[in-house]
Amino acid sequence: MTTIDSPGLDLDAILDDPAIEVLITCGSGGVGKTTTAAALALRAAERGRKVVCLTIDPARRLAQSLGIAELDNTPRPVATIDASAGGSLDAMMLDMKRTFDEVVLTHASPEKAEQILTNPFYDALSTSFSGTQEYMAMEKLGELHRQARDDGRWDLIVVDTPPARSALDFLDAPEHLTRLLDGRVLKLLLSPARGPLRVMGFGMQLVTGALSKILGGQVLTDVQTFVSAFETLFGGFGERARRTRAALAGPHTTFVVVASPTADALREATYFVERLQEEQMPLAGVVVNRVHASSLDLSAGRAEALAEDLAATDRQAERYALRRHAARMVEIDTEQRLLGRFRAVTAEVPTTYVPDNGRDVSDLAALRALAFRTTWTGREA
C-alpha cells in the first residue's frame, strides 16, 4: 500500500465550525460531487446545523438520494433525517427562469415588471443566454445567505455546482451580466435620440435601420422595449452579485473540490484548485472519492503466477479470484501513480480519500454511510 504524504482534510471540523456559513463543492462529472454535497449537508444537519443544500446541477440525483419526489426553486424539508442534535435539512434545485422572474418582481415596479416579463427578448435572456445560469446561481445564493442571516432559518448553505469547468463561472457572473446589460449596443438601443447621440442624427438612423434589417423590425422593437424597462435594474444586478462574490472570498465561505482517482478527474481537480487559488477563494481541500484498496498483501504479478499454477486443476473458482485480485491490484497501482502526480502539484492542499464500497448512493442510509466515509482523515489512499 502506497502512502501519499499530504495533510488530511477534517471535514467534520469544517461542518462543526459555526463561522462557516457557505460550503461550495465543485468538480467534474461522474466523481460523486452531488452525492458528496448531499452527504456533507446531511452530516452537518445530523450534527446540529440548520442546513439548506442548493444544487445547480440539473441532474436530479440529489432529490432521489434525499428521498424527495422532486426539487424545485423552493427549499423543501428533508423530514427523515435524525434531528436529535437539533439540526435540520432543506434541499432545492436552481430554477434559472423562476429565479430571474423573482428578481424582476422584487426589484422592479409592477408596471415595469409586467413590461419585462411579457417581453419576448426577456424570455430568451432568462432561459438561453450564456452566463445567465451562473448569474442566477449567484442571485439565489445571495438571497439564501441574506435570508439565513435575517431570520436564522439556516446557518449553513451547501452548494452543489454543475459538473464542468463552468462550475466556477459564477465567480465572474457580475462582470459577464454587467457587460451584457450595460453594453454599448444596448445603450444605443436605449437612447438613440437623447444626449450626445442626437449629434449622430442620420448616422444613428442608419445603425438602427441596419439592425432592423438584420434582426427584424419586431425583434429590434422588443429589445428596445425590454432595455428601456430593464434600465432601472442594471445597477442592482451588478451590486448584489459583487456583494455575494465578496462574501464567497470571505472567512464565512469554504470550497471543497471533489475528484476521483482517474486521469481526467484529477486533471479537472487540479484546474479547480489552481483557479480557486488564483481567485484567492478559501479552499478547504480535496475529497477523492472511490479510491480502491485491498487488504490482501499480494501483488498483481504474484496473483497472476498463482492463477497460472491452478490452470490445470479443478480449482477454477480460486483461479478466477486470483485473476480478479490481479486486475484490482493493477487498478490500485494506476490510481496510486495518478494520485502521486496530483499530490506533486497540490502538496499543501488538505485531502481526504474515500474508499470505494462498490455500491451506488441512492437513499438516505447510503448518504449517511458516505458521509461517515468522507470524514475519514487518514493519510493512506
TrEMBL record:
Source organism, top-level taxon: Bacteria
GO molecular function, one term: ATP binding
Residue ranges of domain ArsA/GET3 Anion-transporting ATPase-like in the record: 21-293
Gene3D superfamilies: P-loop containing nucleotide triphosphate hydrolases
Pfam families: ArsA_ATPase
InterPro entries per UniProt: ArsA/GET3_ATPase-like (IPR025723), ATPase_ArsA/GET3 (IPR016300), P-loop_NTPase (IPR027417)
Name the UniProt record assigns to this protein: Anion-transporting ArsA/GET3 family ATPase
